[in-house]
Task: inverse folding
């Protein structure tokens, strides 16, 4: 496992990049569409459903859903930088440590909770109570939609730059969710089509770090905009993959949808 340089919160430059690029970068665009598709599959054309983005970052997901007509949106994040960017976009957000989610408006329940690339900051000891807290905030037919870093083989300098402490495989969640009264109803690794080039790139980054050709302090996240033609091509590939295949078996991210299911416990 690579040495962790720092936790993301407090590193303003990563939030600045996220805020500037999440509307354009192929990876975010693809993820936002994937989340909206999951919500639409569950709730049809209902736009007034209550949606919470737990660990909303600089608000790209919420802004996308607002553009798609969703009206009852809420975000939470523990970073002052993230909250400031969300407020600039007039998004309804609250600054809160997600470990304290149980104390946040305890009587409000949501139709959908989004939690993208946040579980990777939680140790096992914190993750189980956090998932339980999410489950308790879902309405009976509510869904948890969550994207996560997958497979240790994809670990690279991005993980260091954004302070990721772990990656997941489906069996991690398949084991955890029932204990927390939740059941996974859909899941896929993505992007399958791009997994080989991404894997090679990450392995090259690891070699650079291992050989001392690049220092941990120089590690950069993958949040940068490639040439427009490449950005559009990568978006198109992930878009096609999403349209053609509901599930793919490998990729650097794991996307899951879970529902509350007391019988699963
Ligand atoms: C990798 S970013 C993902 C942001 C957003 N969900 C997205 O998909 O763009 C992780 C976010 O989780 C937030 N975060 C991580 N741990 C947190 C905690 N314990 N409490 C509140 N926010 C947290 C960070 O501030 C950051 O904005």
Result:
């Amino acid at each position: 496992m690579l040495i962790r340089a720092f936790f993301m919160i407090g590193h303003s430059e990563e939030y600045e990049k996220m805020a500037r690029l999440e509307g354009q970068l192929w990876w975010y665009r693809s993820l936002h569409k994937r989340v909206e598709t999951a919500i639409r599959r569950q709730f049809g054309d209902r736009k007034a459903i209550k949606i919470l983005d737990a660990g909303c970052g600089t608000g790209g997901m919420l802004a996308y859903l607002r553009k798609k007509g969703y009206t009852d949106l809420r975000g939470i994040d523990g970073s002052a930088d993230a909250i400031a960017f969300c407020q600039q976009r007039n998004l309804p957000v609250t600054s809160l440590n997600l470990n304290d989610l149980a104390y946040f408006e305890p009587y409000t329940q949501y139709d959908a909770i989004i939690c993208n690339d946040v579980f990777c900051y939680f140790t096992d000891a914190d993750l189980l109570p956090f998932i339980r807290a999410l489950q308790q905030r879902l309405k009976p037919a509510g869904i948890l939609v969550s994207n996560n870093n997958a497979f240790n083989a994809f670990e690279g300098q991005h993980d260091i730059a954004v302070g990721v402490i772990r990656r997941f495989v489906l069996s991690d969640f398949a084991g955890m969710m029932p204990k927390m009264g939740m059941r996974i109803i859909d899941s896929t690794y993505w992007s399958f089509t791009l997994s080989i080039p991404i894997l090679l790139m990450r392995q090259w980054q690891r070699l650079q770090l291992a050989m001392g050709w690049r220092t941990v302090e120089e590690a950069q996240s993958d949040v940068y905009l490639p040439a427009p033609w490449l950005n559009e091509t990568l978006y198109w590939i992930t878009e096609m993959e999403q349209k053609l295949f509901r599930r793919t078996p490998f990729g650097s991210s794991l996307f899951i949808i879970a529902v509350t299911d007391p019988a699963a416990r």
Observations:
- The two ends are 33 Å apart (CA to CA).
- Residues 8-9, 55-57, 60-61, 77-79, 82, 97-99, 116-118, 121, 162 surround S-adenosylmethionine (CB under 6 Å).
- The first helix runs from residue 12 to 21.
- Residues 75 and 93 are 4 Å apart (CA to CA).
